[in-house]
Amino acid sequence: MTENTLLETRQVTKTFVVRGTHGEDASLHAVHDVSIVLGRGECVGLVGESGCGKSTLGRMVCGLCAPSSGEILFDGSPLPMAGPSSPLAGRIQMVFQDPFSSLNPRMRVCDSVAEGLAAKGFRKRHAMSAQARHEAVQEMFECVGLAGMEKRYPHEFSGGQRQRVALARAFVTHPDLVVCDEPVSALDASVQAQVLNVMKSLQERLQQAQLFISHNLAVVRFMCQRLYVMYLGEIVEELQVEKLGDAAHPYTQALAQAMPSARRRGDLVVLKGELPSPLNPPAGCRFHPRCPKAQDICSEQEPEWKTLSEGWRVRCHFA
Question: Which helix (H) or strand (E) holds 55?
């Protein structure tokens, strides 16, 4: 861990016990042996298919659920569970994928946004009067382009406007870290661009770190400087965003080539089959049943990390 490191996960694993089809208990391996690092003021992407464990990792980073094993460090100390009395209240915030379900329909949006400022853990560090909280909420609504709308209820906004409310709620406490879980995936393209521009301007203005979770590499390329690629609960490649066209892992190559703006160079990497079940992940390399480069060793032995250059590493026998 360096002085600039804000967040670090060390071999984090999350396993859920679920009820099987015949009534027996089964283990669902959502996240396995994940180690990531996030610097202060840095926007880092986390990409992968739906169901690969991205949101579960994001919730653990926010303290919403505890890892089964491993360690999460925030600012050099073990991460406590989230709550209004947490010593980190207000320092870590999350933007959820569906803003309508994450906003209380019976509360005016100004009250929802102000809740973080009124949390006990936040008040211990930043004593704010009711008037100061009101002014902070008004300022944040102006920042996200919703000035004068703070007295409305969630159902009175469009989808893009509700997502801006969610952004205002996340950024109003001036957190050190914001976890963005697919924040624009449900929005139209034109609205996506508006929300992304708001997010980027807030991140640059307030110099906050962001963990940006998405399956859209075009969005990640716009927002992030660095990228982690996740497959079936594991990180398979870490690289700079500008290196996407030269990705070393076959899965990252397939994702990059699926972008509409991708330059087609050489043979396309075509993925076969579906994402395996996390209830019974494949032995060896988890990607081998779908990999066009798979050999016998891939089904027998887990690949080790290979460092290709500074900030670029990959888990693949044939990278």
Answer: helix 54-61
Residues 6+ apart with CB under 8 A from 101: none
As a whole number of angstroms, the longest Cα–Cα distance in the chain is 67
Pairing of strands 209-214, 43-47: parallel
Are 167 and 111 in contact by the 8 Å Cβ rule? The answer is no
Q: Which of 266, 302, 268, 304 is nearest to 287 (CA)?
A: 302
Provide the 8-state DSSP code for 4: T
State how far the Cα of 52 lies from the Cα of 97, in Å rounded to an integer. 16
Cα gap 115→110, rounded to integer Å = 9
Buried b (16+ CB within 10 A) or exposed e, 183-192: bbeebeeebb
CA distances from 16 to 28, 30, 263 (A): 5, 7, 40
User: CA angle, corner 89, sides to 194 and 149, nearest 5?
Assistant: 35
Residue 30 Rama label (left phi>0; alpha psi -120 to 50; beta): alpha
Q: pLDDT of 98-113, one tens digit each?
A: 888 889 999 999 999 9
Exposed/middle/buried for 259, CB within 10 Å: 0-12, 13-18, 19+?
A: middle
What does the pLDDT look like over 189-202, one tens digit per residue?
878 888 888 888 88
In the block, tokens 């991460």 appear at 79
Task: Determine the Cα–Cα distance for residues 147 and 295; give it in Å rounded to an integer.
Answer: 58
Residue 192: what are its φ and ψ, rounded to 5°? -55, -45
Task: Enumerate the H helices of 231-309 as residue ranges.
Answer: 250-257, 296-300
